[in-house]
Amino acid sequence: MKIIPKGSNYVPAVSSHTLKCQMTNMMYNDIGFRFFDKGNSFFDYDMQLINAYDISSSEKDNNHRSRMNYPDDMVLIGDSGGFQIMMANKKGTSINIDPIKILRWMENNADIGMNLDSPPTDNFEYSLRTSIQNFELFQNNRENYIFKLYNILHGKSYNDIITWYSHVKDFDFDGWAIGIRPHTNTYLKILSFLYLLEHGEESIYQNTHFFGISSMDNMIALSMLSKKFDLSLTFDSSTWATGYRFSDYYFPLDVRHKSRLGQTKNSMKSLPCDCPVCQSTDIKEIYKYDTMSPSLISYHNLYQFIETNRMINALADDMQALIQYGKSVNENILISDIVNILNDFDNYNTEYIYSKYKKLFVPKPENRIKPTNLFRSW
Amino acid sequence: MKTIPKGSNYVPAICNHTMYHWLRHQEFAGRNFEFFNPGKSFFDYNIILQNAYYRLSYEEDYEHRSRMKYPDDTIILGDSGGFQMMTFEKKGKPVDLNAIQILRWLERNSDIGMNLDVPPSFMDFDAALSESCRNFKIFEENRQNYDFKLYNVLHGKTYDQIDQWYHAVKDFSFDGWALGIHPSTNVYLKLVAYLYLIERGEESVLNNCHFFGVSAPANMISLSMLANKYDSALTFDSSSWAKGYQFMSYGFPLDIKKFVSLGEKSSDHSMIGMPCDCPVCSSMNIGDIYNYTPITSLLVSFHNLYQYLEVNRMIECFVDDMEVLPEYAKALGEKDLIQNVTSIFDDFDKHGSRYVYDHYHDLFVKPNNNSFESNLFGWQNL
Hints:
The complex is a heterodimer.
Chain A: E1 7-14, H1 16-23, E2 27-28, E3 31-32, E4 47-51, H2 52-58, H3 64-68, E5 75-79, H4 82-90, H5 99-109, E6 112-114, H6 124-141, E7 148-153, H7 158-168, E8 175-178, H8 186-198, E9 208-210, H9 216-229, E10 232-237, H10 242-246, E11 248-250, E12 258-260, H11 276-279, H12 283-287, H13 292-315, H14 319-328, H15 332-347, H16 350-356, H17 358-361
Helix pairs in contact in A: 6-7, 7-8, 9-13, 9-15, 14-15
Chain B: E1 7-12, H1 16-23, E2 27-28, E3 31-32, E4 47-51, H2 52-59, H3 64-68, E5 75-79, H4 82-90, H5 99-109, E6 112-114, H6 125-142, E7 149-154, H7 159-169, E8 176-179, H8 187-199, E9 209-211, H9 217-230, E10 233-238, H10 243-247, E11 249-251, E12 259-261, H11 286-290, H12 296-318, H13 324-331, H14 335-351, H15 353-359, H16 361-364
Parallel strand pairs in B: 1-10, 4-5, 5-6, 6-7, 7-8, 8-9, 9-10
Antiparallel strand pairs in B: 2-3, 11-12
C-alpha cells in the first residue's frame, strides 16, 4: 500500500494525449515524457491521476499498470469518471457505463481509487441518490483491499455538506475525496475538511483528495491546511494540459497567467523560461505547431504547477515567509482568512465558522467582502 | 573595444562583500561565485559594474582587471562613484580622491566608464551641474585611453532640468550617455530623457547608453521596449540583488518585487526545503541558510542576482511579441505601463519629446491620490 508524502501534493490529471506520449515512449532530444521514470524525462515526478472511465471505455486497457510499466514507487490515482459521465449526461450524450468495470479497472491498476459519484449540479437529491447506489455497488463488489478506495463528499453549502455526509458516512472506505463546488470556493473546501475532522474521520489525515483544483489560492490554502494538521493530501487538475488544446503557455512560476502561443505573432526569439523543458527546447520547435509542440508546452506548464506547489509547501513551514509570498501574489487576505478560520476551529466548530465567515461562503459576487479570490464562477 | 549586446542588459553592481569572496575564490558545493568564468559558477554572466570610488578608497585596487583575471569577454562598466563620494561628503567624511585618480582607474580597468558627476539630489541643481561640468572637463582634457568608452552623464527631475543639463554638457566629446534621472521610480521620465537625446541627434545612445541604479520590473519592461523600438544596446545597473548581504533578504522566485528576510532574528527557521529551483538554491539546502555562516548571505544574494538576470531575460524574450508582453505585464500588475509606453513612443514619433512631456504630464508628476500605479512614488512635487 502506497503512502502519500506529507504535505499538500499536486497530482497531474493525465489525458489520453499524455498517456499516448508516455505509452509510446515519445522522445524529444533524447528526453522522454515519462516523468515517473527517474532521470529519463525533463523532470521527475511520481504521481499521476488517470480517469478510469475514459481509459476503460476508450481502450481495452485492463492491465494498464503493467502495460505502462510504471515503476514500483509510482502512485497512480484512479478517478472513477463521475464528473465526465455527468457532463456527458448533461449534453444528452448516452453513455453505456458499467460501474463494476470501472471498479475493476481501479482495483487492477490504481493505488488510490475514487468512488463513482454523481456530482451535484441541478438536482442535489438525484445526485446523492445515484452516488449512494454506486457507492453501495463499489462497497459490496470490492475485491482488492490493498488499494485504497475513497468516499466522496459533495456540496455547495454547509447544509449540503451535512446532508451528503449523513448519507454516505457509514460506507466502509479508506479516505475521502472532496468535490466541493465551485472549485473556486476555496474556503468551503477547507470547511468541508474541518467538518470531516470534527466528525472523527481520522482517515483524512493520510487519505484526502481534492478534485479538480490547482489555482494559486487553493494551493496556498491546502498547504496551510496540511501544515496545520500534519496531513498527507492530494489535489489534481488537468489545467496544465491546456497546452495540448490551445497552446496555452503559463508564465514561469505563475499558474494564473498565460499566453496563447498558438495565436500570437510567433516573434519571440528564445523561450522566456529556464525550466527543464524550456532549457531543452528551442522556440522554433514551439512555433512549428507539429505533434511535439503541444506536449512540450504542456510539460512546461506541468513543471510550473509542480514547482509552484513545491515552493508554497516550502514557504508554508514559515508563516512569515508565506505571508510575504501571499503579498507578492496578492493572496495575503486569503492567508489571513485561513489563519483565522483554523484558529477559530480550534476553539469552536465548523458551524460557528460557517456562521462567522458567512460572506466568504456565499455564492454571490455582490456579497463578497474579499477582493481577490471571491468573484469567480459562483 | 567591447560591444554591448543588443537589447536591454541588466548589469549587477558589485559591492565590497562580493569582491571579498571573489578575491578568496570562495566556493560552495564545488561551485564558485565568479560568474564571469564560464562553467565555474552557479550560472554564467559576463557584464558587471565596478565602482571606481570603492575600488580605490577601500583597497587601492589600481590594477583591478589584471588582479581579478577577468576573461577577455567580460564587460566591465566603471562607475566613477560620484554618488558615493557625495554621500560620504554629506556625512562629513570628505573623500581623499581626485577626479584624475578616478579617471585613471576607469581607463585602466573598465570597458565603459562613467564621468564623475555630482548628482543633483545632493545640492542645488545649478551647483551640481556646475560641479559636474568641472569634472567632465577634467575627464575630457586628461583622458589618455580612447579604446575604452567614456559616457557623458545626464541628470534632471523635470523636462526643463534635462534640457538645461543637456545644453551645459552636450559639447563634451564623449562616447555615450549615462542617465541618472531621479527618482529611480520615475520610469517614464527616463524614457523621455532617452527620447530627448535621440531627438538631439545623439546617435551614440543607440549602442552606448546606461541607466543608473534601476532594476524594478517596470523599469525592466520599459527599457526593454525602448531597446526593442530602436534596436539599441543599452545597460542598466542596480545593487538591489545584494540586499541579501545586509538584510538576508531573499527574493521570491522570479519575483524581484517581494523579499522575505531570512535573517537570524527575523526568521523562525522553520522551512524544511528551499522554495526555489534556481541554480543556487538547487545546490544547497535550507540548513545552509539557517546556519548563518559567512557564506550564507552570499548564497542568498546570488539567488537574488539570478532572479534579476532571469526576469530581465524573460522580459527580453517577451518584448519581441507584443501580444505576449502585455499578458505578462498584467501578471505583474503593470498593465497600464505597456499602454503608456506604447502611446509615448507613438506620440514621440509624431510630435517630439516636449509634446510627450506635456501631454502625459500626469505620468511625470507626483500623483495627488492613490489612483496611480505602484511605481509612481518618491516624487518631487512640481
